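Field log, afternoon session.

UNIT: design team B
ACTIVITY: writing a sequence onto a fixed backbone
BACKBONE:
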């Protein structure tokens, strides 16, 4: 989920966006309001971890500007988005491999390490 302040510019000012998607999101995040609602990164299956996010990018329905930047400029990233949009099982497999690789990265000995009790704040 994203706060309105993080997607307001995308749904109000971006021309590279599906018009009906932008209109729906503007209802929860008006341009002239200081508040707004939350929106899911993936409207199709917001409670499931799947490849719908990539399908949304192809349809120009990426919620954040940084999301939509992953698709549409040509090159390898476009190929990956298209492949993952078609092959959900490949996305899941590649994601799992990437998570294992990231989990095996050790911080340098100079980096202070802390297991947080609450991810949003430093332990007291």
């Amino acid at each position: 989920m994203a706060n309105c302040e993080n997607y307001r510019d995308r749904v109000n000012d971006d021309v590279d966006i599906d018009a009906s998607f932008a209109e729906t999101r503007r209802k929860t995040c008006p341009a002239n309001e200081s508040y707004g609602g939350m929106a899911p990164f993936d409207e199709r299956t917001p409670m499931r971890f799947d490849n719908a996010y990539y399908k949304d990018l192809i349809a120009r329905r990426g919620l954040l500007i940084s999301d939509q930047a992953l698709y549409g400029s040509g090159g390898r990233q476009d190929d990956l988005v298209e492949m993952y949009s078609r092959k959900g099982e490949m996305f899941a497999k590649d994601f799992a491999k990437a998570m294992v690789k990231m989990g095996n990265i050790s911080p340098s000995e100079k980096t202070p390490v802390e297991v947080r009790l609450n991810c949003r704040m430093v332990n007291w």
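LOG NOTE: The radius of gyration is 18 Å.
NEXT ACTIVITY: expression trials, pending approval
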